[in-house]
Write a structure and sequence with these properties.
- The complex is a heterodimer of chains A (113) and B (112).
- Helices cover 0% and strands 54% of the residues of chain A.
- Chain A is mainly beta and 113 residues long.
- In chain A, the strands form 2 sheets. In chain A, strands 2, 4, 5, 6, 9, 10 and 11 form a 7-stranded mixed beta sheet that branches.
- By secondary structure, chain B is mostly beta strands.
- Helix content of chain B is 0%, strand content 55%.
- Chain B is globular.
- The termini of chain B are far apart.
- Classes of the chains: A mainly beta (113), B mainly beta (112).
- Chains A and B meet through strand 4, strand 5, strand 9 and strand 10 of A and strand 4, strand 5 and strand 10 of B.
């Protein structure tokens, strides 16, 4: 399957700062990709769907002004958590749509102090 | 309500035994997929079964799908300690953007 990387793998920040997470597809180009959030011992919850060249579609309850998604190219997408707070601490996972199969990144563990 | 509910939530077995996990969903699907996640890591795609399929095998994995009951099962035979992980089912309802809805997962512990 396709290889997807995320950077950073782990980040600790102070409350109020913004954190940018990168998601790269290393050997695959896709117009559609997804960002998920996973709280401890819980399942993955879809946050947003983004299509290259257009605005992301956010799931209900996810603030678009807080979680900024930039789908810069067919191989790079970024998620910026703006003014992060402790309740934003979570595991963030991206995936690229491979036409019926999704290829997931290894995840980014965000801890907001 | 959440699509894709697995049971049991946690399962502990001895090495060599079989492990069966179940998943139920509520709406029509295009396909159902099973994923594995080691603690704090990303997801590994295990197997995909389409709505017109009833059973699929991959190595020690066997997946069944009953669309009339809106349920699926994942069987891991001859389990190994390395199979210890969380297992999630995810449903794809079709449409143009292949959104997946994940279940709550089953934490499988295989004791050596």
């Amino acid at each position: 399957g396709a290889v997807v990387s995320q950077h950073p793998s782990r980040v600790i920040c102070k409350s109020g700062t913004s954190v940018k997470i990168e998601c790269r597809s290393l050997d695959f180009q896709a117009t559609t990709m997804f960002w998920y959030r996973q709280f401890p011992k819980q399942s993955l919850m879809l946050m947003a769907t983004s299509n290259e060249g257009s605005k992301a579609t956010y799931e209900q309850g996810v603030e678009k002004d807080k979680f900024l998604i930039n789908h810069a190219s067919l191989t790079l997408s970024t998620l910026t958590v703006t003014s992060a707070h402790p309740e934003d601490s979570s595991f963030y996972i991206c995936s690229y749509d491979g036409v019926g199969e999704q290829f997931f990144g290894p995840g980014t563990r965000l801890t907001v102090l | 309500s959440q699509q894709g509910e697995e049971d049991p939530q946690a399962l502990s077995i001895q090495e060599g035994e079989n492990a069966t996990m179940n998943c139920s969903y509520k709406t029509s699907i295009n396909n159902l997929q099973w994923y594995r996640q080691n603690s704090g890591r990303g997801l590994v795609h295990l197997i995909l079964i389409r709505s017109n399929e009833r059973e699929k095998h991959s190595g020690r994995l066997r997946v069944t799908l009953d669309t009339s009951k809106k349920s699926s099962s994942l069987l891991i035979t001859a389990s190994r300690a390395a199979d210890t992980a969380s297992y999630f089912c995810a449903t794809d309802a079709g449409g143009s953007n292949y959104k997946l809805t994940f279940g709550k997962g089953t934490l499988l512990t295989v004791n050596p």
